[in-house]
Design a protein that fits this description.
alpha+beta; six-stranded antiparallel beta sheet; 18 strands; single chain
Length: about 575
Amino acid sequence: MENLISDQNRSVATLAITTLLKVEHEGSVERLMKQISNFINDISDEFKIVVVDAIKTLAMKYPDKHFSIMNFLSTMLRDEGGFEYKSSIVSTILTIIEKVPQSTDMALDHLCEFIEDCEYTYLSTKILYLLGKLGPKSMNPSRYIRYIYNRIALENAQVRASAVTALSKFGINRPDLRHKITVLLRRSLQDSDDEVRDRATFYLRALQSMNGTTEPPSHPSEHIMPLARTLMIEVTTAPIDNIQGSLLSYLEHPSDVAFNITTVSVKPKAATTQSDNARHMKAGGGAPDTDKKPLTVAPKASYAQQLAAVPQLEKLGDLLNSSSPIDLTESEGVSAAYHVTLTKHFFVHHVVLQYSVVNTLSEQMLKDVSVEIGAEEDNGFVVQTVIPVPEAVYNETADVYAVLLRPPVQMGQSGVKIPTCTFWNNLLFKTHEIDQKTNHVSEDGFPDEFPLDDVEIKVGDYVRKNYIPNFTAVWTQTDNDPQSVATFSLTTVNNIKDGIEEIIKVLGMSPCENSEKLGDSKTKHILYLSGTFMDGNIPVIARVRIRLSPQQVVGMELTVRSPNIPLAESLANIMFA
């Protein structure tokens, strides 16, 4: 295979290189990089992009080789090439930063060198945004300031504006650099472009409103700081499509309560299309050909918009939180005939269980689909109603809702009592056979039921994810605040990666600063989490120190901070509940 790298046919040589990049073992990465460097300049940009994509796959496969791969990519950046080619390299470097956090400082150094001589405005602004986001968190953030300021002095207006914003992030997040940043930003107040001047003016006022500046602001800072934090630090994790859908739903169903962006689902909408086969069957056309289309699921609107469209649910009030969907059926075997996922939606006084049912059998149609739900113990939850769906046709999602009255959360000085419960549930329906020859749906159906996995309402369901881009700064600012600390071991896992996933699932909080990804160490790790307790919108942040013992026991120290001390204590001791 390696002999084909020198083949005169560049297509064959490119295919050989990309194949080797996918099958080579870790020990031969450096040798392969050297071979590619002798070959890469002889092919067109189109083939170079293919090679870059293969290098990205290699970096994900062998993260410990990021040093060699990053050096090679930086050399490619300095070589001649068009926009698409350079853009693919930058995107690959960004992916490596995301998946291999320990490569961040090295990658930023290479990107800084690239923008010194970059002719593409889009790439320059993209890299400047990244420098503003990650640079202040690096080991030596001051070394990036020169590269950013050079863009203000030498580039076009669009790049200068991006550079001003990037510089301001250093001032916001690094008090030790705030004075230097203020001096540099003042030089942009006389810029020839109004966008650059406006940004410099705004960010200077914001920096002056914070501690550590050399001169006081000319206006009261209490109104500036919240705005600065919103525009410069706090970035919403909800997709734009979800925000748009929630806003439209709010306009269609006005409420006395102001729109709350924290209620918008952070889960992106599925980018799939509705099955034509399913629509055909729903219209009474019988079973489709089973070999034509795979299982597809229609795109979902935001949860608030979707639930508001159900008449029986529109009077429940504002949606406080929604869980991620969980599977209640197996993916293989007999249970695969019906695929059921559950999403838990929490309102002020109710919990709505949304059962999304997909019938995967083309020879059957399910009618009068409902659920049966109950609990072995009385924990205060009361099933008020079940909203069935008339039919579940092949390959189309049908939603069944169960409305439960939930007991209130009890908060007091002695502690917080958060209602939890475990429910058993069965899927109920009538099965109607479909003649495979005539596609006729039988009018005579027979009742049937299908057991589902138990459903748990847990403490973590009451915590809404709330991502904080600059968690370290927020944690430092709360050093003197009350906190609760608990130490425990996880007996259900035997490695740090599984331990991270388990504690995130239990607490229901959002990981911050990519701390859910493992670094170089395989025996210790620090996880940062942030969330909002939905009853009262109480902010909660947590730090989890994780260590793996020689006996493969995962130990954790969980520190929780919140303005509500009893709540912090309850969450810190969640593993003992």
